[in-house]
Write a structure and sequence with these properties.
By secondary structure, this protein is of the alpha/beta class. It has two domains: about 5-115 and about 170-315, Carbamate kinase (3-Layer(aba) Sandwich); about 130-165, no CATH class. Helix content is about 40%, strand content about 25%. Strands 2-1-12-16-17-15 form a six-stranded mixed beta sheet, sandwiched between helices. A four-stranded mixed beta sheet has the order 8-4-10-11. Strands 5-7-6 form a three-stranded antiparallel beta sheet. α8 packs antiparallel against α9 (about 275-290). The radius of gyration is 19 Å and the shape is globular. The protein binds adenosine-5'-diphosphate and magnesium ion (MG). Adenosine-5'-diphosphate binds next to loops.
Length: about 325
């Protein structure tokens, strides 16, 4: 049996340009789950992870509007909320889809923390935009009130908060989920883990961990999860059928089967967008370098065929 981690991108969970309502999310997830159920029905061991950008952005805004009546929560707590809400929705929709195909597995969300290094250079150089856009006066107010760092977005003509994006070092719930998968003889559970890249935490003096205001790239975190669970395949699902060279130009060409070395060379040449396709490719290379067998980038409809090695960007370990 082959173990697959499917990392769901933003558009598997919410429609681009939508209002962000729960009903929209449900419709989108309902459209996504038949493919996941099909993969489980084919006998693959399945683990899921997902992004949370729009959801955490909405919660940040809600918290801001709720002040001062209800104290705003820190980002780690909001990250946990998004894991809960998205995991719940996938559980609710994937379970009946599995039953329709006669698959008797339990879908379960594991609130996941990802350890990052307190001295990660990212903390000195926040780069990840989160939340809504602010005008000049609001931006100044946020600087004074919360000490935020904001960047001006020329295209949108507004300021946006920047938070650090440190590298994931360790998935704290990894051991528990490994045991869970082993107890289910590999097919009993479909865990949903490390949503939004996991809740970023650093070790606390005197024991334990504490959350930090940061965002972990969900693709790099997916790669870590896949390695920690010893899965064979990392499949990153996004809104394009694969990675392309000369992306967005008339010479654009989708990459199909490609070697690890070829992909690395293209990445070093800067073919893949920073913050979008770049981290996906890096996640895949890390996974293969760390012993993973196969890496796939594709979209939801193509995923079953991609797993049968028919479509999508596919990279074998050797
Ligand atoms: P997700 O939310 O699924 O993580 P992203 O928006 O972060 O998705 O990344 C997918 C996007 O990456 C594509 O929609 C595309 O616009 C962009 N992209 C940048 N470079 C490339 C490339 N070389 N090939 C394919 N897509 C690329
Ligand atoms: Mg993204």
């Amino acid at each position: 049996m082959t173990g697959v981690l499917v990392a769901l991108g933003g558009n598997a969970l919410a429609r681009a340009g939508g209002a962000g309502s729960w009903e929209e999310a449900r419709v989108q997830v309902r459209a996504t789950v038949p493919v996941l159920a099909e993969i489980a029905a084919q006998g693959h061991e399945l683990v899921l992870t997902h992004g949370n950008g729009p959801q955490v952005g909405a919660l940040l805004r809600q918290n801001e509007l709720g002040e001062p009546e209800i104290p705003a929560l820190p980002m780690d707590a909001l990250g946990a909320e998004t894991q809960g809400q998205i995991g719940y929705l996938i559980q609710a929709e994937l379970t009946p889809a599995l039953r329709r195909l006669g698959v008797d597995r339990s879908v379960l969300t594991v609130i996941s923390r990802t350890e990052v290094a307190a001295d990660d250079p990212a903390f000195q150089d926040p780069t990840k935009p989160v939340g809504r856009f602010y005008d000049d006066a609001e931006a100044e107010q946020m600087r004074q009130r919360f000490g935020w760092i904001l960047a001006f977005d020329e295209a949108r003509g507004g300021w946006r908060r920047l938070v650090p994006s440190p590298r994931p070092v360790r998935w704290l719930e990894g051991r528990a989920v490994r045991q869970l998968l082993a107890a289910g003889l590999g097919t009993g559970w479909i865990p949903i883990v490390s949503g939004g890249g996991g809740i970023p935490v650093v070790p606390r003096a005197g024991g334990g961990y504490e959350g930090v205001d940061a965002v972990i790239d969900k693709d790099l975190s997916a790669s870590l999860v896949a390695r920690e669970l010893g899965l064979d395949i990392l499949a990153i699902v996004t809104d394009v059928p694969g990675a392309a060279v000369h992306f967005g130009t008339p010479r654009q060409r989708w990459l199909e089967k490609i070697t690890r070395q070829e992909l690395r060379t293209l990445h070093e040449r800067g073919e893949f967008g920073a913050g979008t396709m770049g981290p996906k490719v890096e996640a895949g290379l890390d996974f293969l370098d760390g012993g993973g067998r196969r890496f796939i980038i594709t979209d939801i409809p193509s995923l079953p065929r991609a797993l049968r090695n028919g479509v999508g960007t596919r990279v074998e370990r050797d």
